[in-house]
Amino acid sequence: MNYNLNKPYKKIKGRRRVLASLQKLFTIIGKERRNLIVAFVAILLNAGLSLLGPYLLGYTIDAHVQTKNYQGVLIFAGILLVIYISAYILNYVQIRMMGGIGQRMLFRLRNSVFEKLQELPLDFFNQNKAGDLISRINNDTDKLNQFFSQSLMQFIRNLIIMVGAGIFLLAINLPLGLATLSPTLLLLIFTISVSPWIRRKNEATLKSLGNLSAEVQEGLANFKVVVAFNRRDYFRKRLKDANRENYKKSIRAGIANSILSPIYTFASNIGQLIVLSLGIWLIIQGRFSVGLLISFIAYVSNFYNPLRQIANLWASFQLTLAAWDRISHLLSLKSNLPIIESMNDTFGSSLIHFRNVSFSYPTGEEVLKDVSFDLQRGKTYAFVGPTGGGKTTTASLISRLYDVTKGTILLDGKDIRSYTACERASKVGFILQDPILFTGTIRENILYGNSECGALTNEQLEKELGNAQLLNLLKPFEKGLETPIEMSGDSISLGQKQIIAFMRAILRKPELLILDEATANIDTVTEKQLEIILNNLPISTTKVIIAHRLNTIKNADEIFFVNSQRIIAAGSFDEALNMLMSEKGES
Known about the structure:
The protein has about 575 residues and is an alpha/beta fold. It folds into two domains: about 30-330, ABC transporter transmembrane region fold (Up-down Bundle); about 350-585, P-loop containing nucleotide triphosphate hydrolases (Rossmann fold), CATH 3.40.50.300. Helix content is about 60%, strand content about 10%. It has 18 helices and twelve strands. The chain has helices at about 15-25, 35-65, 70-120, 120-125, 130-170, 175-180, 185-220, 225-230, 230-260, 260-285, 290-330, 390-400, 420-425, 440-445, 460-465, 495-505, 525-535, 575-585; strands at about 350-360, 365-375, 380-385, 405-410, 415, 430, 440, 485, 510-515, 540-545, 560-565, 565-570. The strands form three sheets. Strands 6-9-10-3-11-12 form a six-stranded mixed sheet, with helices on both faces. Strands 2-1-4-5 form a four-stranded antiparallel sheet, with helices on one face. A two-stranded antiparallel ribbon has the order 7-8. Helix 3 runs antiparallel to helix 5. It is elongated and about 115 Å long.
């Protein structure tokens, strides 16, 4: 399945695409509907009061200033003061409410994106860069937060004021109003024409920002290797190229986002010029008053100023839609590892049964083809073969990190796809050659995913470790279970990391234990300890050992040779050795 987020995906085009994006966008704030209604009422009242001011000002000039009725001027001045103070308070209310809505939406959206990432299979993470995913969680979601907390209500307020001002202009003097609003038609045509182009430029910027984040993340995560091979210049060049690309895309997006504002300003100036020219002419003709002209000019400003702001907000809206496209694409992905209906398909006493299994990676050749074999309970199996032959892939299929392309894998008599992730993890333990630890303590790392021992105190946990003969492995760590660990693992050696991963897997008491070069970085003395621990596991525990060092597989009950899309029972240790040697000789 194609999980690459940077490859083109099927999109709805044109107006339908915008409407579809908007529909999805507003579903994420469904819980904020009540607060949105309150904020909308506040902004509606605010806009109404703002629109009332210019009319009262013009009326005051005609009815009281020209007649020198100063008492009336003071009364209307007080009314205008109350109107503007009320509008200010209402504006503050809607800003506070929308700020809260934006932050809560950001909180929920980031949780949703991260939960979606946890649902997706290993295929997804193999096809996408961590830096780009981080950019979607942080940068893209923040674009939506800014839109909801700042731009949305400004957009609505400006739209209401603009429409209201247009109505007042037409009501005061229809011919003059039509002449004043005539440039708007050209603005509408221009905006509709350039909006897709603006959105494309913003999409390109967000993509380049994701690539830049990916380069930063990769350079920092692998800095030890960069220093060891003295390749700072290489990663500096890569980051410089990504940064330059982001700079170019950002400049183009900036030009696209700002192109509307000067056009709208020019239209506003044309509108005001029309008002002044025709208005003064109408006053000379005696068909217009000074007060109405002042009101008219104020309404022209109330029409074109919000229109200019809407132009800027429209560019921001295109950026928001571009960010939402990237997020919604991620949220729309489905795992290609569904849980199917449980069906008993018992095959003898086998713990694991491969039945005509074939497998290939999404972007690669077939790794396994029509493979069948059995793993019996309580036995030790070894998988050997040349690098790239498919040993780790086979172990990954047993752990259901991937699904087979064809065929079936049975775990304890049931299709492995019918187990939930928790059920499967309780049955299968996996120790990797390069173990993954998390920031925290040794206790937290060895209890990772272990619900049975999670509530134990340190003393009780040490007793459990003693029963499993794992307690001696804690001796190299001064603070025992409370020894702090960084995710990078720089505070401890790779061998110590493998020991912690070993303890984590054994403590879960799995029915099947897979060791993928699990002792490759461990000293000989500790390796002997681990062999003793493995030999003292319950007799029902099945062990699968993937190894390049032949001394680690001498005591295996059965050895499988994995190569050239096949898994062949090698028989004795000597036969497996001959197969390995002949394979190297051919290569």
